[in-house]
Amino acid sequence: MKFSTLAAAAALLAGTCPAQAANIDFWYGNTGAVETAIKAQCDAFNAAQSEHKITCIGQGSYEILMQKAIASYRAKNAPVLLQVLDAGTLDMMLSDAVVPVQDELPDVKWGSYIAGARAYYETSKGKLFAQPYNASTLLFYTNKTELEKAGIAKTPETWEDVIDAARKLKAAGSTCPFVTNGEPWIVFEQFSARHGLPIASKHNGYDGLDAEYVFNTTLAAKHMVNLAEWRSEGLVRLAADTKSGNLNTAFTSGECAMLESSSGSYTTYTKAFEGKYELSVGMAPMYKGHERHNTFVGGASLYIMKGHGKEEVEGAKAFLDFVRRPEQQMSFAAATGYVPVTNDVLDAIGKSGESNSPKYATAAIGIVSMSEPATPDTRGIRLGAYIQFRQIWTEETQKAFAGQQTMQVAFDNAKKRGDELLRRFQQTYKGVALP
Length: 435
What we know:
There is one protein chain. This protein is an alpha/beta fold. It folds into 2 domains: about 5-135 and about 295-370, Periplasmic binding protein-like II (D-Maltodextrin-Binding Protein, domain 2), CATH 3.40.190.10; about 140-295 and about 385-430, Periplasmic binding protein-like II (D-Maltodextrin-Binding Protein, domain 2, 3-Layer(aba) Sandwich), CATH 3.40.190. About 45% of the residues lie in helices and about 10% in strands. It is built from 19 helices and 11 strands. Strands 1, 2, 3, 4, 5 and 11 form a 6-stranded mixed beta sheet that branches. Strand 1 (about 25-30), helix 2 and strand 2 form a beta-alpha-beta unit. It is globular and about 65 Å long.
């Protein structure tokens, strides 16, 4: 939506970070190991050349970053480069606040980007609107040590296998065989993608703003019913059910033996497991009898914002060229677990002699997962106000987990409330064609 409209719906923060003269400001929303890797990349860019200087400013989270970006754009002091999470794609495309990256860099071989990363951020004509950056996808992690103690020799590949393993773990004394935070990106969006299920009509909104949600009638609804039942059986725990109340801590401490999580969590797990447990990582589980399709790209992409002079834009383009280099993608992947976004990087990893190194474990798996057979419903999600919808979906499903309503009612309510958001968004852009 236009930033002026989105601003009315968002809780804007008062402070902004005005761009500094002769600097290229880049705002990002990550913390922890990813923030460390971003800062290292910014330092490397500044050290590699003297024509431009980038100032990289963390905003604490994707959501806070979006709020500040809205305010800064309206105040005419927005950064040149902005990192935006996947769910904000349509809002950015229709905001009139950014320049399509492929327009600014027409000579880049954009076809080298893996299909799963391109599809989420490109227009109907195949033009990339933003440059994929910290790309993640959903993977399945297990504490292989604990599984073997329970007599489980093979890593589960289907949901039926996962629950069979969970029962064995419970019988062996585990209080948390499988853990999830119940976030929509994990248990709903990525589940729908790899099972080839639509989230909304019009191919998840790609074919028009008049889309309606349909997820309440698909296998995704049954899966959430199953998760609630498995939780009652003691096979699945929500993060809030665990000792720490935190998804990653519950897994890294050894309390919980299995989980689905972002490829970007890989380094967190390997560092915590070192000398204690053996980690396994693979593609997220399927239900038996269903064909596997591509998982969505997660994480975020980089936008060039309007309102800046030629010199600043040239600096932004230089930075985008820099982070696209295979060696930069390799170092970023090794430091974070995020997935490389261009096909040539796997070749570069192979030539490096470190293709079997644990630091690149998620690179090949992640690319394979995002490169499985695609359908018009697995390109991505092109729905307005989707960040707000995620909040609605979470609110309704948490009520179901708390026993206040059934999971099917939660899905039906989320569909109804989500459609209301879509109609308001559609009215805001009445007569506007999707790019």
